[in-house]
Amino acid sequence: MSDNLVEVRGLRVHFPIRRGLIFDRTIGHVKAVDGVDLDLARGQTYGLVGESGCGKSTLGRALLRLIEPTDGSVFFDGVDVAKLPAQELRRTRKRMQMIFQDPLSSLDPRQNIESIILEGIRAHGLVDGRTLSRNRIVELLEAVGLSAAALRRYPHEFSGGQRQRIGIARALAVEPDLIVADEPVSALDVSVQAQVVNLLEKLQQDFNLTFLVIAHDLAVVRHISDTVGVMYLGALVEQAPSDDIYAEPLHPYTRALMSAVPVPDPDVEDRRERILLSGDLPSPANPPTGCRFHTRCPWRQPERCDTERPQMRLLRPGHLVACHYAEPIAAGTLRPKSADEVAAEQGVHVASTGGLDAAELLDAGRDQAATNF
Ligand SMILES: Nc1ncnc2c1ncn2[C@@H]1O[C@H](COP(=O)(O)OP(=O)(O)O)[C@@H](O)[C@H]1O
Ligand code: SF4
Ligand SMILES: [Mg+2]
Description:
Layout: E1 4-19, E2 25-41, E3 45-49, H1 56-63, E4 71-76, E5 79-80, H2 86-93, E6 96-99, H3 103-106, H4 113-123, H5 134-143, H6 160-173, E7 178-182, H7 190-207, E8 210-215, H8 218-222, E9 227-232, E10 235-241, H9 242-247, H10 252-259, H11 266-271, H12 304-307, E11 313-316, E12 319-321, H13 326-331, H14 339-346, H15 358-371
Parallel strand pairs: 3-8, 3-9, 6-7, 7-8
Antiparallel strand pairs: 1-2, 1-4, 4-5, 9-10, 10-12, 11-12
Helix pairs in contact: 4-6, 5-6
The protein binds adenosine-5'-diphosphate, iron/sulfur cluster (SF4) and magnesium ion.
């Protein structure tokens, strides 16, 4: 038995862009996921981070085949899910569950909590829902920190954090091996986020689950992840054990993301390296050639960065980076350009600076950047 519960190879999900009223023509494709290899080790948590729109949800859904992949394989326990016939897919899918960002929209408002959990089980044809004892449902509720009193209540009677707990109980009811949690705390108040993250961590240990936790916030996945992967425009750019990637991010994009997170210690904060990215995330319908990050990268080098797509390479034990110049960047022998210089090279302006220089802009946007990169 492989140590990996899931092995993703060469995964692509391209959405057609259609135009035309009479003749439905495909005029291009949104390359939401464009060549991803990824392993989920059994009983571990993989944190997937990246800006909004970089393809995290599409990847999570393609993994469960809630979206048909355009190309590539998703091996779940050794079986290629991407090629499974419908009947077998159904059986496999009950071993994989998804937790969504907005618990309210994923819980039927007309059903009480008991029937919501039973429904989840029936939908998988696992058992006749009625045979699932009420004790078992109470156990599930207790596992997520809710009491038996919740059984007869309706979703609107709960807070956001409690509703997310109900969504988690429903996912656990079918006893899955894999849970994909897509931005599980993004819709919650900051004060509740940590509680739900801690709950996920506890459940992962108690039930020996394998987790893919998707977030746009580095802080969310930091403590629960064994491995962290950073995505940019449909591809992974860096992957490493969680401690390593936070201690020494090696890809320019990851470095920029990390540099936007304020440090509580004022002395460290003053000395903190700050990297401001110029320009917006390019469109996945028309991604840059070569390294997809070259239009914003402060370390971009002529020719190679623009023409040759970097592959993931092992730079340190367990630490993969997709950058041609990762070594000289790590050694400090290649110096970064400022955001203004990068913008000038690309013929774009640093987004609406309103006369602020890069450092001021970063200060102004730092709090926001820390929670919402
Ligand atoms: N069903 C769809 N049809 C067309 N484009 C889509 C669809 N779903 C997502 N996209 C596009 O794919 C890209 C990645 O989206 P998504 O996976 O939701 O990113 P993330 O979860 O990282 O924010 C975005 O440009 C998005 O607009
Ligand atoms: S390959 Fe070039 S453009 Fe891409 S991240 Fe590395 S230095 Fe920057
Ligand atoms: Mg998403």
